[in-house]
Amino acid sequence: MHRLTVLEMELLRDHLALWKGEACRAKASEDQLKQRLQGLEAELEEARSEGKAIYAEMSRQCQALQEEMETRSRQLEQEMRGLWEQLETCLRKAEVAQREAEQALREWYRILAQLPTQGADMEAKYEEILCGSLDWLLAKLRAIKPQWKVVVLRLHTRHKEQLYQFGLNPWIFDAVSI
User: Fold this and answer.
1) pLDDT tens profile 110-129
2) Distance, CA of 8 to CA of 2 (rounded, Å)
3) What are the DSSP E strand ranges found in the chain?
4) How far is it, in rounded angstroms, from Cα 19 to Cα 38?
5) The dihedral sign for the CA sequence 71, 72, 75, 81
6) Mean pLDDT of 90-111
7) How far is 39 from 90, CA to CA, in rounded Å?
8) pLDDT tens per residue across span 121-163
9) CA 64 to CA 60: how far, in whole Å?
10) How far apart are CA 72 and CA 119, in angstroms?
11) Which of 175, 144, 170 is nearest to 157 (CA)?
């Protein structure tokens, strides 16, 4: 029995050595897992920190974009109001210009309608003035015709005499009758 007990004790020692080895491996594995867990926790904390930083940056960018959009929206609203005012002003000016153009066109048509009558009146007045002027001119010519005949006869006679002096026959040049 003693032998059996020794065997059992050895068996128990071997078993204990196995369990001890297993416990050491488990302890080593636990240490490795703790280190790995610490590494993962550090990575997780770093990822959280990066996530927070990214979230903060994106929030800041989002806020900046919102402010920029609001500013641009206000600018566009002001520009739109200005353009509406310009459009209304242009429409009013266009209406005034159209009324003035229509008035000018009506005036032009009225003048065109009067032109034949005015033309006939002017023609009659010009004819009256022309006839009066021609009558006056004829009366003047009749009044000075006797004086003119005397001057022409004197000139004619003088030229004839000059032709005689040069030895020419004045009757050849006497084609002009007085």
Assistant:
1) 888 887 888 888 888 988 99
2) 9
3) none
4) 27
5) negative
6) 92
7) 73
8) 888 898 899 888 888 988 888 888 888 888 888 888 888 888 8
9) 6
10) 67
11) 170
